[in-house]
Amino acid sequence: MLAGDPRGEAWAAARVRQAVRAAVDAGLWPVVVVIEPGNAFVRGALAGLPVVTCTGDGVAPGQGLRLGLARLAECAPSARGLVLLGCDGPSPGASHLAALAAAAHREGTPIAASARDGTPCVPALFAAALFGELEGSDDGDARTVLAADPARIARVELGRA
After folding, report:
1. Is residue 3 part of a domain?
2. The pTM of the whole model exceeds 0.85
């Protein structure tokens, strides 16, 4: 996900820790983190946090989401949903993640997504009914699922939660 980032491994590890900390603080469980093989910086950044990790050989684009879904099924087979987080920038924080759950509940939608100027993006909450659709998405990072049917998405503008 962050392989080859010119900002360096320490920067990437800090972003992963920040996103995981927000998920934990929001009460999300389990928190599943997909790690590229041999990424000691990220493993070190996760030390002491209540997370479940998984690693795939050469995590290719799209494979990370599939690996994470498989690990989620192992750890929490009755999970009602998942929150997909990106780690390539500052985390929006626990209050934003909680606002996603509240928006999905309030509006009765299977997706609650963050939005930038109204355009859905991650972090996003997906109901379990969409796990198969996420696993089969061509892009592997949920863009196809977010774009498929705007009517099934509750939006929470970033910076307003």
Report:
1. no
2. yes
